[in-house]
Amino acid sequence: MAHQFNLPDVGEGLTEAEIITWHVAVGDTVSLNQVLLEVETAKAVVELPSPYAGTVLELLHDVGDVVPVGAPIITIGDPAGTGTPEDSTPAQSSLEVPATADRDADGGLGSRVEEPRQAVLVGYGARTTAVARRPRRPGPPAAPPVSAGTRPLASPPVRKFARSQSVDLATIKGTGPRGQITRDDILAVVRASSTVPAAPESDRRIPVSGTRKYIAEAMVRSAFTAPHVTEWLAVDITRTLKLIRELREAPANQDLRITPLTLVARAAIITLGRHSDINASWDESAGEIVQHRDINLGIAVSTPRGLIVPNIRAAQRLGFAELCASMAELITDARANRTTVEAMRGGTFTISNVGVFGVDGATPILNPGESAILALGQTRQLPWNHKGRIRLRSVTTLSLSFDHRLVDGELGSRVLAEIAEILEHPARASVR
């Protein structure tokens, strides 16, 4: 007896996913709920557990294949069995609709067979085109699959980076915890194997898929539907940096990660509480402006899969310590590829820290559905008029982009100026 496991609906509003890693090979014995593979959708990397216990008979797709929801991806059963695999996939993954009883024209019971339908999420139409396979990147032949018991230990982002560099993880000895292979381990192999860089024989083509494709589509949609306005303001944050040092030294805060971004987030929450008009969305279909009750604060995080923006729900309800802990957890999860799809939905206001890359400012593009986004630039020592005298002060630049359909220049300017005022005089606003 054999079973085919179909690609399930992972609940993200999408109809396909790309296979990025197989955790098993043909002939491996798998247990119930053992992770079989990892797939990447437009928003996240998802591990798929096995609904069956048995032996892997066949892997129906290769790494890099884009598979539609409902398509079979693996066959599990007894390798000594005969006959065709029996499709015992859970109902949500099945592509066939069983025959049902119906009454015929004479009023008797007859057999009615419904047409097969494609499994898609509610609100999304069925696919009308064939699913294209990702073209293979030229390079050395791929190594055969490694059994689950001897699989090199590495996180999904590291595995993807290794594939992009044509590095076989089985040949690397990891230096991370428990022998885990790190990004630095792969870079060391690349540097050791490279001498004088050879000129490429042709232009390199990189398939656009997964998170990067979703980000590109979202940014284009936002840039060409919402009229953007961006305002800049240089701010003396010397007192804020002093407050951060004091907070870090307090015994009660030893376990908290307190950074300038934390204080900027706190200042933004306070200001949005005073100006709820900017914590809003433009509902084109209903012809309405939706003013949100909660501030779902998005933090832009750079990851190996691209820039993602998870958010902290109802951030206005959190105390300072809770905000610090929530931001630290959000950033750690994003960089470790643990961010859930739900954590990236429903944001109302976003902060992007471009200063960590040595950049003074930016003109950030709105996340779809949000009316404003704040960019924090790098902090520099600059001559500044402080109490009537020119002194060196710690200065940063704030950049606020907003949707001019529902945020006019006065409101945008007030919000930016008040955030800056709080950062310049944090004690006045009880930022702690």
List keywords for this structure.
single chain; 432 residues; alpha+beta; seven-stranded mixed beta sheet; four-stranded antiparallel beta sheet
Low-confidence stretches: 80-134, 136-149
Total helices: the number is 7
Q: Strand-residue fraction?
A: 25-35%
Structural class: alpha+beta
Q: What level of helicity do the residues show?
A: 10-25%
Mean pLDDT: 80
Shape: globular
Rounded to the nearest angstrom, the radius of gyration is 26 Å
| End-to-end gap | 63 Å
Task: Give, in order, the helices and strands.
Answer: EEEEEEEEEEHHHEHHEEEEEEHEEEEH
Number of strands: 21
**Largest beta-sheet details:** 7 strands, mixed
Written overview of the protein:
There is one protein chain. This protein is α+β, with helices and mostly antiparallel strands and 432 residues long. Helix content is 22%, strand content 25%. The chain contains 7 helices and 21 strands. The protein has helices at residues 156-164, 183-193, 210-223, 238-249, 260-274, 320-335, 409-424, and strands spanning 2-6, 16-22, 29-30, 35-40, 45-49, 54-59, 66-68, 72-77, 100-103, 109-112, 228-236, 280-283, 288-291, 297-299, 301-303, 306-308, 311-312, 349-353, 372-376, 380-386, 389-403. The strands form 6 sheets. Strands 11, 14, 17, 18, 19, 20 and 21 form a 7-stranded mixed sheet that branches. Strand 9 and strand 10 (109-112) form a beta hairpin. It is globular, with a radius of gyration of 26 Å. The N and C termini lie far apart (63 Å). The relative contact order is 0.11. Residues 80-134 and 136-149 have low confidence and may be disordered.
